[in-house]
Amino acid sequence: MDSISTKNVAATFKVAPPEKDLATNDALSETFSADDVAKHSRPDDLWIIVGDEVFDVTKYQEEHPGGKKILAKAAGKDATEQFRKHHRDAILI
Question: Cytochrome b5 heme-binding domain location, by residue (predicted)?
Answer without folding.
Answer: 29-93
